Amino acid sequence: MARIMPTPGQKIIYLLCILLGTGILYVDLNTDSFQKIKHGYKSLKISTVYVLRNVTIEPIREILNLSKSKKVLIEENENLKKALDASYLNNYLIARDNSFYKDKNILKYPLTDDENIAKYSIAKLKSLDPNIFYCCDKHRMYIEPLSNKKKTNIESVVFNSSGILGQVSKDSKYLEVILLTDISHSIPIKSISENFFCNAKGSGRANIIICSYNPLVWSEELKSNEIFYSSGLGGIYPRDIKVGSIVDIKDISPTRKDIEIELYANPLESSLFGVIKN
Question: Is the pTM of this model over 0.85?
Answer without folding.
Answer: no
